[in-house]
Write a structure and sequence with these properties.
Blueprint: H1 11-15, E1 17-27, E2 32-45, E3 48-59, E4 62-74, E5 80-85, E6 90-95, E7 100-107, E8 110-120, E9 123-131, E10 136-145
Antiparallel strand pairs: 1-2, 1-10, 2-3, 3-4, 4-5, 5-6, 7-8, 8-9, 9-10
Length: 158
């Protein structure tokens, strides 16, 4: 893919709204693949964004409902955010000033390395490479905006 990257001056306003999500999950060591299809809705919760993902995850031919919630808090600059798990634990930082960002998240002895790429107002991608003694995974997620407006104003209209 020879894409150019789209810098994002206000990451929370960019993400706000509804996105179609398509994710592949590949277990490198086990040579197995899965697929998630669903939506992610970013809604304002005060000055933060609540990220709720729901859909169907199919692993080894068995589909199951799947969902998760994350919190996106404003960073030091509007182009940045601090991402937290639903219980408030830190996950990673996000800086989309240039349209690309790499983030690390250590989890026990495994390391999650995320690559974020913004292609335009309606498309972005996230790829996590998980490596360690417990996991050997590649998770690639494509996001496509589903709502008609981009970006969406934050709380207070700006």
């Amino acid at each position: 893919m020879n894409e150019t990257f789209h810098g994002v001056p206000d990451v929370l306003a960019y993400l706000a709204g509804t996105w179609q999500v398509e994710r592949t999950a590949r277990d490198v060591a086990g040579n197995a693949e899965g697929h998630f299809s669903g939506t992610t809705v970013f809604t304002w919760a005060g000055d933060d964004l609540l990220h709720h993902e729901s859909g169907t995850f199919t692993w080894r031919g068995t589909p199951r409902p799947a969902e998760r919630t994350l919190h996106f808090l404003p960073g030091d600059d509007p182009a940045t955010a601090r991402v937290r798990f639903a219980d408030g634990r830190p996950f990673h930082d996000l800086d989309l000033r240039t349209g690309r960002h790499t983030a690390d998240h250590p989890c026990a002895l495994d390391l999650y390395r995320g690559e974020f790429e913004v292609y335009d107002e309606r498309r972005w991608r996230m790829r996590w490479r998980v490596a360690g003694p417990a996991k050997d995974l590649i998770l690639t997620t494509a996001y496509t905006r589903q709502d008609p407006t981009t970006p969406q104003a934050g709380p207070g209209g700006g």
